[in-house]
Amino acid sequence: MTTALLLHRADGAPLSTAFRQAAFGKVDPFAREREIAWEGPGAMSAGRIGFVGEVDVAHYPHTEAIVVVEGELGLVANGAAPRVLRKGEGAVIARGTALRIQAASRAKLVFCAAAAELPSQPGITPLRADADFKPSRSLPPEVLLGPAPQCRSDNVFKDELSGFQAGTWDSTPYHRIVRAHRQNEFMVLVDGGVRFASPDGSVLAAHAGDAIFVPQGVSVGWESSERVAKFFVVQEVALSA
């Protein structure tokens, strides 16, 4: 049974998630380094990358959020100042972006990528822990096992073609029932911790620095006892009957 998938543990603990080495598309710039943990409807994929060296990309072939979990990664887009992502920092690379990717020593990344046939507006959009948070929708009372949380978000990227949305989100503590997840969701916890409950009663605990992917339709619960902040990517797709 598929549940929440751990893509990275900040404390270096071993993962039970299965990864397979594979490219994401025919011209993937990370083809030799990419390890996929999940791929499914909506041409979305999530996993991890270990990269060292330098590669020039004339047109980035898909839209991808990356977060550095170890080392440093340089991104140099045409016409923009070089950007260095350090541990705990992330960015969204839009389809069609021309850039150079470089790492002097091995960098470890987690990723969530989505494909589409048409190009989007090229560029690199940072994911920021010190986000410009604005109040966002809370949860409906019928799914809560306690007080309603106060939620905030900073939605910095949206691609209408693939349904790929990314940003930073935070919330006060809350407890939610086990229910079908409404979207594909990639998250990297920036602050706090979460306990993800499965229908069989098992619990997956995640903490700051951990990366998780929850596929749409998977039954999972949420329980937090402190403020939680996360980078996120979400995508809602039409599931076959």
UniProtKB/TrEMBL annotation:
Protein name per its UniProtKB record: DUF861 domain-containing protein
Domain (S)-ureidoglycine aminohydrolase cupin intervals: 160-232
UniProt cross-references to Gene3D superfamilies, sorted A to Z: Jelly Rolls (2.60.120.10)
SUPFAM superfamilies reported in the protein's UniProt record: RmlC-like cupins
Annotated source species: Pseudaquabacterium terrae
Pfam families: Cupin_3
